[in-house]
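Appendix C reproduces, verbatim, an entry submitted by the partner laboratory led by Prof. M.T., so that reviewers can inspect both the input and the predicted structure.
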Amino acid sequence: MRSDTHPISGALYEELGDGLVKITKDDSAGVFHWETGWVEGDILTPDLHFLQFIGGPQLASTLEEAAKEAGDKANDSYHGTVRDPRRTATGRVMFRNEGQPQVAKYVGDPGRMTENGMRSAGPTFQELVAGDSRPELVPDTLKEDSPLPGGVMKVSTDRFYSQEFHDLEVEKLWKRVWQFACREDDIPEVGDYIVYDIAHLSFIVVRVDETTFKAYNNVCLHRGRQLREYDGKCATEFRCPFHGWSWEIDGQLREIPSEWDFPEVREEAAHLVEAQVGTWGGFVFINPDPDCEPLEDFLGSMPEHYERWHFEDRVKVSHVAKIVRANWKLTQEAFCEGYHVMATHPQSMVGGGDGSNMSYDAFGNWCRATTTGSGGTSPQRAIYPPLEEIFAGRKAGADNIREALRPVMGGKADEFCDAELVDGYFNNLFPNFHPWGAFSRIVYRFRPYGDDPAMSIMEVMYLVPWPEGQPKPPPVPIHWLGPDEPFTDAEEMGELARVLNQDTYNLPKIQKGVKAKAQPTIFLSSYAESKVRHFHNLYNEWLSIE
């Protein structure tokens, strides 16, 4: 049975089984069900997310034991790819300073003025980078400090539930924007293809030769039947199951059965309708707009920031897709900021701070957020370890990770500074692609689920480095979860699944709330939620919204 101490209140939460949790503090106690609330006792109000973390859906017992023993996800070792056991599910290293209290009352982050405006009272990312034990290895890209200008932003709530907004997104966004469709390794052989769906749109993405990918509107030009319903391998043609019209894998027309009955149609049916295709870092992108800007221009500086981390050489070892009862934007926004950590993930505050002390930067179409290994700094609880202790802890954590990476990377493990190893970079490219940076394994993608604006698909992939010169294994298939299946049903995700359960526990309630909100706007902060502001700035531009 699980038990843990709340990092703010000091109350002990103990799992009793059957979804029940006992909360004890001083001489008081209460029993709660993690979903339905109070059962008995004189403690009447729990921390709902801590309650869910202790009493909610858990990992299979063997994985739970393995994760507890390793202090991290149970699958951190995969064909020689080993990670520091102190690295958390979110990708950064948590280290405790000796004698530092782990339970402390909430006092509120007072903030402080910096040369770039108000920030959390804790050390900034740039201050931590300045103390790196290998300053000569710190890339210039990590030294960039590019906060998003502007203050608090108001956003209309109807964009999260309105069918009109959804339809406008299809026309002005999904039919015109570059979007991640698959990994190159998902379709490794000529003729391999995937079906990529976004809202009611559908595309076939196929490898037509060793280095060339194409994408087609997944529709027969005869009567509109979907050409392919599932992913496939080694196709030699795309033949419609309805009447047998067929096209080569390069999109050229192969056959119209009884073509004599369709005079003057061949020219219009001569080629499947193509989308534009581009690749970067082993990812395949498509854009349905024939007049779109090149992918390289859309990415801007992003490839430069990722150049040292060689995503093209990584292997996908996990891919979970969950249907969520919330708009895709709401779902995505829950993973764009650390402001929610203290309330939604209180367990991570033990040794890991409170999420206030993060760095946010905006670069064109993409954003960077940095979770700092700052020795348990917690401005919301007035915990400020000395910088010297933080630097020493960062060096020790980085040295451990270098040794863990050495079996995979050899001497290249010494080419990275502390910040690339102990910090997490949860970056996102507009509109819905989130490849975390450095050696965080996580990649997210968020999509509307069909044409229902109140439903979405959240995908979580793990990409790990692979030993140079060794043949890669095939990427894992997608593991689908329904709206009522928790992430912990995907045991391959390890401990991260329990964290994501807390996030997705919020989402249907946010969806209901934005529709019920008497004030038809929400507020986004000037700094901690600047990644979300950045998204809505671009969203407004693409949809021509004032």
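The two ends are 53 Å apart (CA to CA). Additional entries are available on request from the coordinating office.
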